[in-house]
Amino acid sequence: MPQNRNVLPLPYLENVERVLAIELLTAAQALDYRRPLRPGRGVERAHETVRETIAHREADYLLEDDIDQSLAFVRGEELLGPVADELEPLG
User: Fold this and answer.
1) Residue 19 DSSP SS3
2) Which residues, in sequence order, are CB contacts of 87 under 8 Å at separation 6+?
3) Are the C-beta atoms of residues 41 and 86 closer than 8 Å to each other?
4) What's the pTM value of the predicted model, to 2 decimals?
């Protein structure tokens, strides 16, 4: 029996990242449609950061480019920095 059975293979992690990227896109679209209501400060800052890179879409289009840009947010820290700056320290 392999000793590394508790370690997820890389393709599983890549799929999870891709799902999170799609969720980030759909959340941004949903927030656009909820205007003039405003979310909390951290969510609003995350939304602004995403919209600086990925535009709101009204019509059907090929999602691949937007998913790739959203995936960069999931894998990097470009989204975390502005949100952390907006919020007070939790500890």
Assistant:
1) helix
2) 41, 42
3) yes
4) 0.82
Q: Comparing C-alpha atoms, which of 23, 25, 18 is closest to residue 75? A: 18
- H-helix segments, 1-91: 10-33, 41-53, 64-75, 80-86
CB of 19 closer than 8 Å to CB of 64 = no
Output the six-digit token pair for 81: 């920095």
pLDDT tens, residue by residue, 1-32: 456 667 768 888 899 999 999 999 999 999 99
Running DSSP on this structure, what letter comes out for residue 5?
T
- CA 17 to centroid of chain Cα atoms: 9
Please give the Cα distance from 10 to 13 (Å, whole number): 5
